Amino acid sequence: MKTKVVIGIDIGLTGMKAIAFDLKGNITASQSATSPHDMPKPHWSEREGEDFWAAVCKMLRHLMGKLENYEIIGVGCSAHGDGIWILDENNRPLRPGILSLDTRAFETSLKYSKKLEELLLTTGQGASPSSPATLLAWLKENEPETLAKAKSFMWAKDFIRYRLSRTVGTDLTEASTSFFNYKKQEWDPKAFELYDLSELEKIAPIVNNPTDIVGSIGYDTHIHTGLPEGIPVVAGLHDVDAGAIGAGATHPGQLAVMAGTYSINEVISAQPKVSKDWFCRSFIRKGLWMNMAISPASSSNLEWFVQTLCQQELDIAKRAGIDPYGFVDKEISEVADDPSDIVFFPFLYGNPLDVDADSCFMGMRAWHNRGHLLKAIYEGIAFNHKYHIDPLIENFQVDEIRVVGGVTRSSIWPKMLASVLDRQILIPEVSEGGALGTAMIVAVGIGQFKDLDEAAKTMGSKSIAIDPDPKIKEMIIPAYEKYKEYMKQIYPLWKNK
């Protein structure tokens, strides 16, 4: 008898993966690929629909070549959220999909930010440049012919869901990014009205739970992807929710931290609360919310520094098969007992503030070396996470904190985060949290488990507990206070530049 597996497709902004898991959570096969995208103009970030689908098909065909001895019983997709995809009456993209890295609608977001209080009371979140509502408002002003032909709007994973199942729709985690009433967890006419987009309410897609079976693989899709004809397709979900589930966060009181391109900090709750400090969005079913504080300011800053200023060491590590975090940790350990003189703002790709803040080092002197700079980067990344996490802890029940992301491979950074938070953190032994969380959604949807808690107990991984280090805590908490004070002092320069 063949081992049963479910496939989780995890699509990021620059890369994507399709991974088959057995029902104990073991990886049986995986395949990765780049996520095609274009930047045709400054501040634009787009993806051509057919190129996107072709890349997914190729990835799935390669995966299926590794699964001849397994029985595939279901498939689902998670992907980067926000941005927008617009389809015509034949369910074809009217224009390239707009990604969440796109900032063309910055001025538009400022316009609607004047309605912040009304937006919070209705949708649970303010306007941002990459939010679907802001982008649709920009399109109304700049590409009215596109919206005139629109018959549906959706998100990246919904486009792949359509190509897999030939059903149009979205799920709770994506629908709640702009036009949802955050309390009722359903489309709200007032939300459309606040963005001057009332005419689009009639084309809002059907909303499913992520675990709902929405269709099955048809013959044409089987030919293009290699997926078995007839297997069920579930609705899927936003990748940050999938990552939280893969990390073991499935019920209220659990806070998930993802340190990657974005600083993602999110806590599950049984009651909604709104604030300008976080997005209040729906989770996997009505009656659950994911309260999400994010900014594009996390470990990608370290990756940039290493690739730009440590290329020789990076090449040596790659040839030796050594994790690059090994040499970073070594250099930091040599200066670990030195005072945290240098402050680093990890804002290379964006920031959590309401101004166009820059990344920079402050406090450098001639006696500092590269190890001090790397230590400051580690601290700056931890500080930005704390900046987001503190309001969540103050306003929600937080029983445990689960942390995932490449930087958790460091032996030093997790201790820094635990120490500056003064809380124990858990590091799940999982390398593919987004795909695993998606696979769990599939397994629950097709009836292999009664709910996500049961799926997590069976398919989830063990976790390593990291406690605050008294020695690190003694230095890092005052350093965080300095970080906040420097940010306060430099804010006027950022605002007026």
UniProtKB/TrEMBL annotation:
This protein's UniProt keywords: Kinase, Transferase
Carbohydrate kinase FGGY N-terminal domain location: 6-246
MF GO annotations: kinase activity; phosphotransferase activity, alcohol group as acceptor
Family: Belongs to the FGGY kinase family.
PANTHER family assigned: L-XYLULOSE_3-KETO-L-GULONATE KINASE (PTHR43095:SF3), SUGAR KINASE (PTHR43095)
Species: Apibacter adventoris
Domain of life per record: Bacteria
GO biological process, one term: carbohydrate metabolic process
Domain Carbohydrate kinase FGGY C-terminal: 255-444
Protein name: Carbohydrate kinase
InterPro entries: ATPase_NBD (IPR043129), Carb_kinase_FGGY (IPR000577), Carb_kinase_FGGY_CS (IPR018483), FGGY_C (IPR018485), FGGY_Carb_Kinase (IPR050406), FGGY_N (IPR018484)
